[in-house]
Structure formats: C-alpha cells, structure tokens
Amino acid sequence: MQIEFIANASCLVTLADGRTVLSDPWYSDGIYYGSWYNFPPLSDAALRRYLGLKPDFIYISHLHPDHLDAATLARFPSNTPVLIGRLPHDHLERAIRRAGMTNTVQLDLEETTDVDGVEFTIYGDFSGSSEDFEVSLDYAIDTSIFIRDRDRQTFFNINDNPIQVESAERVVCRHGHPTAAVVPYSGASLYPHAFPQYNDAEKDRQRDALTERMLKKFASVTRVLKPGYTIPAAGSYVMGGRIAHYSRWLHQATPAQISACCRAEEFGETEICLMAQGDTLDTSSGELVLNKQAPFRDFDIEQRTVHAMTLIDNPLAHEKVVIPGEFALPWQRLLPKARANQWARQSSLGLYPAVDVVLRLDGAAGGGLDFAFPLDRPEIHGFDCQPPAGDRPVVQFRIDARLMAMVLLSAAIWNNIEIGALVEIERRPDRFSPDVHRLMSFFAL
Predict the structure, then answer these.
(1) Do 2 and 275 form a contact (C-beta atoms < 8 A)?
(2) Could you give the CA distance from residue 147 to residue 184 in angstroms, rounded to a whole number?
(3) What is this structure's pTM?
(4) Cβ atoms within 10 A of the Cβ of 307, count?
(5) What is the DSSP annotation of 400-411?
(6) Per-residue pLDDT tens over the stretch 279-310
(7) Residues 343 and 262 in one domain
(8) Which of 121, 182, 275, 282 is the most buried (most CB within 10 A)?
C-alpha cells in the first residue's frame, strides 16, 4: 500500500493491485463563503497533477466544503464511484450529485463491504465533539474509513470524526492495529479568533491551550491504535479576506509542535510520519519519499499568518452582495418568521436550552439592528433591545446583514458561517453550549 499526502484531509491511497482511493479532495480556494484557503497552498504543478487524477474510488467523509468541494469534484470523471456512509439523511448524497457525480456508493455504517478483494468499512460519528462536550442534538455528519487491502495491510483514515479513546479501542478490537492511520491533531472552529471579548494576549493563551489539548487527544488515540505508521493530519488552512488576521489564532499545531509532542509521548513501535504535500509512504517497505518541492514543509505561526495576510484583499462572498438603497429588507417580519421556524424544529426535537440569543446585524436598517429572543420560549424579546437582566446565559452573534439575508434564504448555512468565522460571538458566562450553535442551523425562512 502506498499513501500520498496531498492537503488538509486529502490523500491518495494506492492499493496492492494498483487501484487508487482518493479521499476528501479540496483543491480550490475561497470555500466557506470566501474565508478558507489551503495552507500550505497548492502549487500550480500540484494542482495540475491532482486535478488530473482518475482515481478508481473517491471517498467523501462528510458534507463540509473542505471535504466535499464541488469545484474540485467537478474536475474528476463524473462516473467515478464515490464511497460514502449510509447516514440517516440524504444531505451528503444529494450534495455529491449536485456536484455532477453520478455514481454514489453508499455503504452501511460499520458493515464491511468487499469490493474485488478489498474491504471497506465506514464508521459513523464517534462522538458529538472533538473535546467530548455533551451534545443533546444528535446530527450524524462525520465518518471515517477503514481499508483492508488484498495483502492484508490496513489503513484507517479517521478524518474529522471526533474520535475518543473508547472509539479507538472498539476499532482495534474489531480490525486489529492498522498498518497505517491518519490521526487528527486539531480541527476547525471560530474559537478564539472570532471572540471580541478576548484581547490579543488572551486569544494567544486560548489558542495555545486548545492546541495542547488537541495534541494530547492525538497522543492518547495514537497510543491505543498503535498503527505501524501514524500520519498526523487535520484541518490545515488559513483565513482570507478582511478576517485574514484571524489566522494568527488558528489552533492547528505547527510541525515543530507536533514533533515536540511526539518526542514527549511514548508510542512504542509506532513510527510518526509527519508528511507534507506530495510526500509518499510505502507501508510495505517503510520508505518515506519526501517531495523536495513541498511548500512550507516547516513553518511557525508567524509564517502562516504572514501568508494569510497576502489574501486580505480577497472579498468574502457576502461582500459581493449588493442590496439597492431603495430596497429595504423587512427585517421586522423576516427575523420573527425565522425564529418561528426554528421554534417549530425545536418543538419536534424537544430541545429547549435556557439561553437568550441576540442577533446583532451590521448594515441593516441604515446602520445596525438587534433581534433578541429566548431559546426556551416561543416569544421574542424584541428589536434593538437586550434580554432582561438576570442570571440566564446570553449568546450574542454579530453578523453582516447581507450574510444574514443569505442565511435566511438558505444561500448560506449557519454551521458553515461559524466554521468560516464570519460571525463574532460574545457569551455570558463564557461557556460553550453546543446545542445553541446547532439550533441556529434551523434559523431560516
């Protein structure tokens, strides 16, 4: 088996018989409504190579655009078999078909499927969040894939799936220790960079603490899996446009930080393969061939941020939206309607967090507009007001009115604008409530 690392979560696996499996190809820039760019960037030569591939299979782990990128998928033959897990909903399959792919192959979760001598097993969501926060609203999205080749070598690509030690133990109990595994060491969120209640020094501190926690999770999972070769991989990107400076506070560990973690931990016979773009690992011989043209093989936070700042003039998607001055959006009708729709979904789910929400719209009604409501009751607090004083938690989202219009019309997805850090958040008390953020996905017309 040969594994070539490409970018972010994408790698190319060449099986013993020469067939190839391409995972989560994202090779275009400006996803998440203009906010995300590949880092390290893909060179023109790399783009020509990877967009010219004709893989035997494409595996798409989940719906997020850094894993399912329609612009990239459109470059591959439309009849390429696309492997996905059979989820309780068809959102992933429909998105793949909209991208022009006509041969989606759904595999039952945790059922092993033999395809001409190669076994594929797709695992569904391991847990609700990477740090094991309690989540009441269970929405299956992430998957991982385990491949057993004809020669019995195995490859476990965890991807973004928030794996815990117990999940890793279950996989090993079933399949044994994998020959090679892609193990996440980080992830993506808008924390702490999109939190104006923190000054720069506090954001630095929060970033470093989160980076350390995620590296410890990487180490604990690796110790359980005990693969012959561990490939650290995670959401690797920078922000562009007017939020390019946020890249300073992304919590993806640098190569030096990953190496330091691996030196400090005891992984037994596991070999850590810190791979850059175009590096190839042969799992039979153990040979790791380095791509001498790989950009940013070693970088620090400052170098990553400097690169991001070269993208500062690129517009975000909603900044291209022009609302004529004579066309006033009826926010006083639109926002209560969206709240009523959200309440209807909450009622069907039976989920009522005792939290007050404030939506602060920049650029609405000639300046700004606030809309406040409780999440545990159907009424609203009103416009241009704050929730009543008291001890109840409050989460305030600050968002451009043009982007809010896109959300209301389902031209933008709330979860994706948060991942893209296109909203600012302030919360009292300063505590993460996953259910609040997931329920905001239902705030639409």
Answers:
(1) no
(2) 17
(3) 0.95
(4) 19
(5) EHHHHHHHHTTS
(6) 999 999 999 999 999 999 999 999 999 999 99
(7) no
(8) 182
